[in-house]
Specification:
The complex is a heterodimer. Chain A is α/β, with parallel strands linked by helices. In chain A, 39% of the residues lie in helices and 11% in strands. Chain A is globular, with a radius of gyration of 27 Å. In chain B, strands 1-2 form a two-stranded antiparallel ribbon. By secondary structure, chain B is mostly helical. The chains are: A alpha/beta, B mainly alpha. At the A-B interface, helix 12 and helix 14 of A face helix 2, helix 6 and helix 7 of B.
C-alpha cells in the first residue's frame, strides 16, 4: 500500500489553491473553538501529517449521518472533505463489494494496527447472536468488536451509535445496543444527532487528526466544543421564552412571528447540540429557525421521551403512559381519600370505644 | 374538655423557623415549578425585550430554591449537632431492628384501629419520624440534587454544574431528569394532605395541642375532666 498523502498534498492535487486551503482550516479551527494561536498548529498538521486512515462501518442505521457528512459546507467542496480523511473502508461508498471489501478492511487493520480511526454509523443488534444485522456472512456485532480491537479511537456517528436512537427505542426487538455498550477499553467519541451536523462531524475528525488525540468530552462522551451547551441557551428565540411569549398553535399569528416554541413541545431546553450556533446546510437554517420545535434528536432515548409536539412529556409509570401532573393529582387525591376514610374510621372508633370514665364506672 | 396538667417545651425556635420557612418555600417552589412546566398566562403585548414574564417565574423558583436549601442545611445541622432531644437524629435508628419494635408497632396499630388507646409521644412518634424521613428528608435531597443539576445546566462547566452535573447520569438524559423532578414534586402536596390530616386528628384524639405547638413550641398533657 502506498504511503498516505498529507492533507495539503490532497488539496494541491485537487487544484485547491493555498488561499482556500488556509481559509478552510481557519474556519475549521474556529468551529472547533480553538484559539487563533493554535491556527498555525492546525495548518502545520494538515501540511505534514499523513492522512488518518479511517474505517467507516455501517450497522443498523439509515445512512443519514453519511448524507449529512457529505454536505459539510465550509468553503471546501464536499468531495475534498471525503478525501481529507483516508477513507479506506466504507460499505456504502465502496466500488468493491462482498469478500473483496472485507479483505480491504482486514488489510487496513493489519497495516495500521492501533493507528486507524474506526467510525461507526449505526449500532449493533445483539439479540439472537446479532442475526438482525449481517453482512459478508458475519454479524455486525462481531465485525464491530473485531475492528474496534485494533483501532486508535472510535467515533460513534449519530444517535444510533452513541445512544441507540430509534433501533433501541422501546420495545427494542433486535436488542440494538450503542457502541459504548458492546465495545470496551477504547476511547469512544459520541457524536449524537439524527444526523449530526456536518461541520461537527468534520470538526471532530480534524481535531483527532490535528492533535492526535480525542477532543475533550463531556459526561456522555460528547465533544464539549459542540455539545457543551443546550440549544435553548443559544436559541435566537430565547427573548420570547424569557418574555413569556409562546406559540400555542401552529396556525396562530405567533407562529409566523417566530415566538418561542416551548409550549409546542420544543426539547431545546434539554438538548445539547450546536444547531442554534452552527446551523445546517451552509448556515441556511435549523429546525427552530424554520418554525419547528426541536425534537431533541441528539439526546439519549429521545424516541421514548414522549410526543414531539406536547410540552409535558409522558412518564412511563406502572405500564401506563401518564404525564407527571396526572400521576401527581391521582396521588394527592388518593391521599385525601385515604385521610377522609381514616377520619371516618377514627370517629367510628371513638363511638365504639368506651371512654375511660365509662370503663371505670363499669 | 381536658385540663392542662403539664406544659412541655417541645419545638424550639430553630425547628419552628425551619418548619414555616420550609412550608413557604415548598409552596412557592411548587407553584412556580408547575408554572415553568406549563406557562398558562397570556403573552404580553409588545416587544419581547420589554418583558421578563417567564424569566421572573424561573427567577423566583431558583431564588426560593436556594433559601429552601439553606433552610434544609440549617435543619440538618440542628438534627446532627443541636442539643435538642426532640429534633436530633440520635434516636432515629431505623437500621436497628429494635427501632421497629414495640413503640413503632403500637403507633402503627393505633393508626390501623387495632388498639383502643393512643400511644403518647412527646416529640415525633416513630411512624411520623419515618414518614418525615422518607418524604421530607429524602424527598428534599432528591429535589435539591436534581434541581441543582438542572440549575447547573444554565452555565455548563461552571461551579454548580461541576459539583452537581453528575446527578444527570442516574437519569440518562437531562429530559428524564426534568421529568423526574416534576413527578417527585408531587410528593410534597401528597405529604401535605397526610400531614395536615394526621396533625388535626392527633389534636382531636390526643388533645396535646400539636397544631398550636408548631407556633408556640409548647405541647400539653391533658387529663380527661371528670364527667
Amino acid at each position: 500500500m502506498s504511503a498516505k498523502q498529507t492533507f495539503a498534498e490532497v488539496f494541491e492535487a485537487r487544484g485547491v489553491n493555498r488561499r482556500d486551503f488556509l481559509k478552510f482550516f481557519g474556519l475549521t479551527s474556529v468551529s472547533l473553538g480553538l484559539s487563533p494561536s493554535l491556527f498555525p498548529k492546525v495548518v502545520r498538521a494538515m501540511e505534514t501529517k499523513p492522512r488518518t486512515p479511517v474505517i467507516w462501518m455501517h450497522g443498523l442505521e439509515c445512512t443519514c449521518c453519511s448524507e449529512s457528512f457529505i454536505r459539510s459546507a465550509h468553503p471546501i467542496t464536499k468531495d475534498i472533505i471525503l478525501n481529507m480523511i483516508s477513507l479506506d473502508y466504507d460499505e456504502v461508498l465502496s466500488a468493491a463489494a462482498g469478500h473483496q471489501l472485507e479483505e480491504v478492511r482486514k488489510q487496513i487493520m493489519k497495516d495500521y494496527k492501533g493507528k486507524y480511526i474506526l467510525a461507526v454509523e449505526g449500532n449493533a443488534a445483539t439479540k439472537d447472536d446479532g442475526v438482525y444485522c449481517m453482512s459478508a456472512g458475519d454479524s455486525f456485532l462481531n465485525k464491530l468488536q473485531e475492528t474496534a480491537a485494533d483501532a486508535a479511537a472510535i467515533i460513534a456517528w449519530g444517535s444510533c451509535a452513541s445512544f441507540g436512537c430509534v433501533q433501541n427505542a422501546d420495545p427494542n426487538p433486535t436488542g440494538a445496543a450503542p457502541v459504548s455498550e458492546v465495545v470496551s477499553g477504547k476511547p469512544i467519541i459520541n457524536v449524537p444527532g439524527c444526523p449530526p451536523i456536518a461541520e461537527v462531524m468534520t470538526g471532530v475528525i480534524t481535531h483527532v487528526h490535528t492533535f492526535g488525540e480525542i477532543p475533550e468530552l463531556d459526561r456522555l462522551g460528547r465533544p464539549k466544543a459542540f455539545y457543551g451547551t443546550r440549544i435553548h441557551d443559544k436559541c435566537y428565540r430565547r427573548p420570547f421564552f424569557d418574555a413569556g411569549m409562546f406559540v400555542e398553535n401552529f396556525d396562530e399569528d405567533s407562529a409566523s412571528k417566530g415566538w418561542c416554541l416551548y409550549k409546542m413541545g420544543c426539547k431545546g431546553p434539554t438538548t445539547y447540540n450546536s444547531c442554534s450556533k452552527i446551523e445546517w446546510n451552509e448556515k441556511t437554517s435549523f429546525p427552530i429557525g424554520s418554525g419547528h420545535p426541536c425534537i431533541g434528536c441528539s439526546e439519549p432515548n429521545f424516541w421514548d421521551n414522549g410526543p414531539f409536539y406536547t410540552r409535558m412529556a409522558e412518564v412511563p409509570f406502572l405500564g401506563t403512559d401518564s404525564n407527571a401532573d396526572t400521576i401527581g393529582k391521582i396521588a394527592v387525591g388518593a391521599a385525601a381519600a385515604g385521610a377522609a376514610a381514616h377520619a371516618v374510621g377514627t370517629i367510628i372508633k371513638q363511638k365504639v370505644t368506651p371512654s375511660k370514665q365509662e370503663e371505670k364506672e363499669s | 374538655m381536658g385540663l392542662i396538667i403539664e406544659e412541655i417545651y417541645v419545638w424550639r425556635w430553630p425547628v419552628r423557623i425551619y418548619h414555616w420557612l420550609n412550608a413557604i418555600c415548598i409552596t412557592l417552589l411548587f407553584i412556580t415549578g408547575l408554572y415553568i412546566a406549563s406557562p398558562i398566562l397570556s403573552p404580553p403585548i409588545g416587544e419581547a425585550v420589554w418583558y421578563k414574564n417567564m424569566a421572573w417565574w424561573r427567577y423566583i423558583h431558583f431564588g426560593t430554591a436556594f433559601v429552601f436549601i439553606a433552610n434544609f442545611l440549617f435543619r440538618l445541622y440542628w438534627a446532627l449537632f443541636g442539643n435538642d432531644p426532640y429534633a436530633r437524629f440520635g434516636g432515629f435508628q431505623p437500621w436497628k431492628a429494635s427501632w421497629w419494635g414495640t413503640s413503632f408497632k403500637e403507633q402503627m396499630a393505633s393508626y390501623l384501629f387495632l388498639r383502643r388507646d393512643e400511644p403518647h409521644h412527646i416529640g415525633h412518634n416513630p411512624v411520623a419520624a419515618m414518614a418525615h424521613f422518607v418524604f421530607i428528608f429524602l424527598g428534599s435531597w432528591f429535589m435539591i440534587l436534581t434541581g441543582l443539576a438542572m440549575y447547573g445546566e444554565n452555565n455548563p462547566g461552571g461551579f454548580i454544574d461541576s459539583m452537581f452535573g453528575w446527578v444527570m447520569l442516574f437519569f440518562g438524559s437531562s429530559h428524564i431528569m426534568h421529568n423526574m423532578h416534576h413527578v417527585m414534586a408531587w410528593i410534597f402536596p401528597f405529604y401535605l394532605v397526610i400531614h395536615l390530616y394526621a396533625v388535626t386528628r392527633h389534636d382531636v384524639v390526643d388533645r396535646t395541642s400539636v397544631t398550636s405547638s408548631i407556633i408556640t413550641g409548647y405541647k400539653h398533657k391533658v387529663e380527661e375532666s371528670p364527667m
